[in-house]
Amino acid sequence: MAFDFAWLLWALPLAFGLGWAASRIDLRHWRLESRAVPRAYFRGLSHLLNEQQDQAIDALIEAARHEPDAAELHFALGGLFRRRGDYDRAVRVHQHLLARADLSSAERERAQHALALDFLKAGLLDRAEAAFEALLGTRYDAEARLALLGIHERARDWARAAEMAQALEGGPHGSFRLRLAHHRCEQALALQRQGRTGDALALLEALVQQIPASARAWVTLAEVRQSLGQTEGALAALHGLRQHCPSHLPLVAHALAQGALLTGQAADAQAALRAWAATYGPALDVTQALAVLESDAAAARAHYIDHLRQEPSLVAATLWLAGAPLGAGDDDRLLRRALERACEPLKRYRCAACGFESRQYFWQCPGCQGWDTYPPRRVEEL
Predict the structure, then answer these.
(1) Is there a contact between 186 and 217 (Cβ–Cβ < 8 Å)?
(2) Which residue, 37, 40, 73, 309, is the most exposed by fewest CB within 10 angstroms?
(3) Rounded CA gap, 14 and 159, in Å?
């Protein structure tokens, strides 16, 4: 049977028409998808600006479905999950990014840094440590070392913390010498608890020579010397603090007065405290120390009057009243008790970073974990 070529005259135009129609449909679908992605992306951005994190996440997930290869969308999603506290999803997003073979080295380092932050925020310190160590030697080296320093401090691994502080010294984050001194002091206290007081003493004596601006180094040295019965050595350390860190003298004023009384150096201590007060103004702890050094009760109370002349202070007034003889009735006793109760909050120390208050002075704030954030003066004096 002969083939009828007339059918080709009909088939070719028909095939061309069907192909053209299919291409138009695909083109229209591609255009719709390309328009849908920016709309979802910008909708997510709008929600972010309005601080609507849940709606922003939904919009960005929709955008990521249309563009599964868009790394920026995944970084944005991971960051949002972390900010919301959804650390598991943040970790999965950043681990998915790291598993991709098409990431550039810069994007891979960025994903590794984001993953390390996820672990740190989630409190998984061992995983965070490993993730940050993988960033050493990259463009995130300084940030990784700073994070590792914080991790070692939280783990109370003071030897590794000291090594990291030394590595960070002179970098973009400023000086870490005082922070290193805190680490060395913690190591010395640990040695003292282990019964190795001699090693602790040697470490602290070297520390005050290396970092004389560290107030804690002088204070800890004085405490260790005093624990060994070296009262004169402890007093010498307190005078070293007065010379190198004069702003912290109120913290040790009482200990300085007691040491001076024990060693017969009351006059020298009194002269030193008076000179400090003349330079830096009245301080409650210094005023109390001066009162302790007086052998006469009237002379001791006169120091509180001098303090009140220079600076009004409810605490100083209460201390002055405490030295006055009680009256015949209970009125004086009730009045003093009420004043002492009112003074208690004024005797605390307050963190300048987070506002955490405590009756005890802390070198590292229990609230915000910041070092040297407590001013060495009481709340009333701030």
Answers:
(1) no
(2) 309
(3) 82
**Separation CA 107–CA 109 (nearest Å):** 5
pLDDT tens-digit map of 310-368: 988 888 888 887 766 655 556 667 777 887 788 888 889 999 999 999 999 999 998 88
Secondary structure (DSSP) of 317-340: HHHHHHTSPP-SSSHHHHHHHHHH
**β-bridge mates for residue 349, sequence order:** 358
- Per-residue model confidence as pLDDT tens digits over 76-124: 777 777 887 888 878 877 787 777 777 788 888 888 998 899 899 988 9
Residues forming the annotated binding site for Fe cation? 351, 354, 365, 368
Write down the pTM of the prediction.
0.76
Q: Which residues are annotated as a binding site?
A: 351, 354, 365, 368
| Residue 354 DSSP one-character state | T
